[in-house]
Amino acid sequence: MKFKIQKEKMLSHQKKWWELDTFYKLLIGGYGCGKTYIGALRSIYLSYLNQPLPGMYISPSYALSQKTIIITLKDIMRRTGMDYNYNQMRNEFHIKNWNGLIWIGSGDNPDSLRGPNLAWSGIDEPFIQKKEVFDQMIARVRHPESSHREIFLTGTPEQLNWGFELSNKTDMDIGVVVGSTIDNEHLPQDYKDNLMAAYSEEQIRAYVHGEFVNLTQGRVYQDFKNEYIQKFDYTGMEIAGCCDFNVDALTAIIFAHGKNRIHAFKEYRLRNAGTYDLAQAIKKDYPGITIYPDATGSARKTSGTSGSDHDILRQNGFRVITGRSNPPVKDRINAVNRAFRKGIASVDNCKNLIKDLQMNVYRNNQIDKTSDPEQTHASDAFGYAVSKLMPIRSRVPISVEW
User: Fold this and answer.
1) Distance between CA 136 and CA 153 in Å, rounded?
2) Based on the number of CB atoms within 10 Å of its own CB, is 303 exposed (0-12), middle (13-18) or buried (19 or more)?
3) Each residue's pLDDT tens digit, 299-355
């Protein structure tokens, strides 16, 4: 039997995902955007390329697999006239046309996935599964006789977990495509309308448009969206900096700003260092700029010398602008959210700042600074500058300028 894929019938995001030439293929999408269908089709295709070697298609549980990937695989095979057998005891599809083999796995017990080498693997709804499932597949997709090894993942983003971090990896051979429910022309319009009417704005972003949104807790910077991660021509704008003083992770952000516009484009993060080291690093690249620091730096803190953090910045030729105290946290957060909501803020090449803006959440009505001590420093620094340059309140606090 000759196996032919009709790409012209695919939705645009399905086709784009299918044509990725990376080892890891990640399709993130809303409900009904065609993730499971294209994943099932991909598993059949990979069984053809790697015949007769086994591959594994993993669902969050065997019970769920019966309602999703198994029923979808059977539907595709029946409609295309394939000669296949499904052994429920072995959780195995055997495609007789080319001796293809698809094992169905369950992610509810990652240890059960240990075993023989695989030629390929697919993970359905990975973002509600444990990271150990993905780790097991990394270890197992290694069959030496495979003609095309790959790991694909298809799912709706449920929370900011390992899947979110994977989608932002730059040191792995991974391709990421996002698909929206709205783009699936095969769905009834009333289904789409019902989704839009039933969900909150945050849920629509995740369940319809396939964006990663923390739905288990409230995001601090809820108006920040991936579209604000962009290149920006800041020629002619003033270059400035902002910083947050921490003993272990001194953080600074460099940004450009003008009338109703701010763009962050470089960050510094130093460990086991003092304010002098941070000042020297910034001075090397951007001497004499204005810096909007954490106001608490007017006291002796991380500098490790007789002067305050602010003193060290001034001694290195920087102009320091701050308030006598930091603005209320709520005002600072509101200022940042408003800047993104109005489309006057953007970020590029600042991985820690971007991670903060995407992942910082509230815990007990405060920013969670305990779950991951690495977070909040960059966004705090950025907030000091935004709240000073674009204050949310009508009453501007008294400033101290050196």
Assistant:
1) 14
2) buried
3) 555 545 557 899 999 999 999 999 888 888 877 887 898 899 889 999 999 999 999
Tokens 């094992």 label which residue?
A: 103
Q: Per residue in 247-265, pLDDT tens?
A: 678 899 999 999 889 999 9
Class of domain 226-401: alpha beta
Q: b/e map of 185-202 (b: 16 or more CB within 10 Å)? A: eebeeeebeebeeebeee
Q: How far apart are CA 255 and CA 237, in angstroms?
A: 10
- What are the strands, taking DSSP E only, across 245-343? 250-258, 261-270, 290-293, 319-323
Q: At how many degrees (to 10) do helices 377-389 and 351-359 cross? A: 90
Distance CA 196, CA 205 (A): 10
Question: CB of 379 within 8 A of CB of 221?
Answer: yes
CA nearest neighbour of 99 among 119, 79, 117: 119
Q: Which two tokens stand for residue 96?
A: 């007789």
**Cα-based distances in Å from 175 to 123, 150, 180, 379:** 15, 12, 17, 27
Q: State the Cα–Cα distance between residues 249 and 244, nearest whole angstrom.
A: 9
Tokens of 199: 């969900």
CATH architecture of 7-207: 3-Layer(aba) Sandwich (3.40)
Residue 297 and residue 300: Cα distance in Å, rounded? 7
State yes or no: cis peptide before 52, omega within 30 of 0.
Answer: yes
Domain ranges of the chain: 7-207, 226-401
Among residues 337, 336, 379, 347, the alpha carbon closest in space to that of 226 is found at 347
Its pTM stands at: 0.58
Question: CA-to-CA distance for 146 and 234, rounded, in angstroms?
Answer: 49
* Dmax (CA) of the chain: 81
